[in-house]
Amino acid sequence: MFEGFHLEMIELAEATLRVRYGGSGPPLLLLHGHPRTHTTWHQVAPLLAKSFTVVCPDLRGFGKSIKPADPHDYEAFSKRAKGRDCVALMDRLGFDTFYLAGHDRGSYTAFRTALDHSSRVLKLAILDGVPILEALERSQVQFATDGWHWFFYAQSDKPEQAILADPKAWYGGCAEAMGLENYEDFQAAIHDPATVIGMLGDYRSGIELDYLHDREDRHAGRKLQCPLHVIWSLKDDLEDLYGDVLSVWQPWAEQKVTGAGIDSGHHMAEENSAELASALKAFFTAR
């Protein structure tokens, strides 16, 4: 995986992150979702590395990156804290400004990073996500049915007990579909109790704290200053849940929001890497 990329544990002020980076050109930070690690980008990153310096970390709490000591420290698991990690990481690598894309749970960290650090993020791509506040406020029967895990994962103690009883059965995954090395990294993550608790912390902070940060921004009229492009999986449920996905995002952005669906299931970086890489390259290179 990731031929020509560097793999390091990078110590930052608040966290130590496992990071893979390589390529040349303008910096592009890619943030994975749940329950993946940075290796989910193993097919996309090399394609983008022909045009960008691609940086792929394990988010705080995920993979082999640091786990906050207190599983109930919601601030430490918050997207605001993870956004600080993103900026600190790019500082450490020597990048004052950068492009940013986030998938699934990583999309919430990407959104928060761009809101809190508007001078640093040049363009933002959101993959399979809407703001946490929007998801919760629009929650009805279908979301409660399809997205039940949001609320279950936010409970205390019970979800980790259920998951760790049989992580492979809980999360599924297929080596043939994911690629062997990516699958092995994923399996190592979901079988590690500290990582499972770290991933659940992302959901707990969403319910306890992150939505409040979104609400404060909306009340204050703060919006994304950079161009925003939204990509969603046509074989997943984002359109079913929200209809016009771009209209959900438009109130959060100063500029006109662009985007489209791609022919994929939820894990688009693994299921349709070529189309995703092409869409990201087109957006980040457009003037």
List keywords for this structure.
287 residues; alpha/beta; Rossmann fold; eight-stranded mixed β-sheet
What would your notes on this structure say?
The chain has 287 residues and is an alpha/beta fold. The protein has a single domain, classed as Rossmann fold, CATH 3.40.50. Helix content is 47%, strand content 17%. It contains 16 helices and eight strands. The chain has helices spanning 44-48, 74-77, 79-92, 105-116, 132-137, 141-146, 148-153, 158-165, 167-171, 175-178, 180-190, 193-220, 238-242, 245-249, 268-271, 273-285, and strands at 6-11, 16-23, 27-31, 53-57, 98-103, 121-127, 228-233, 258-262. An eight-stranded mixed beta sheet has the order 1-2-4-3-5-6-7-8, sandwiched between helices. Helix 3 (79-92) crosses helix 4 (105-116) and helix 8 (158-165) packs across helix 12 (193-220). The protein is globular and about 50 Å long. It comes from Pseudomonas petrae. Residues 26-181 form the AB hydrolase-1 domain. Keywords: Hydrolase. GO terms for molecular function: hydrolase activity. This is Alpha/beta hydrolase.
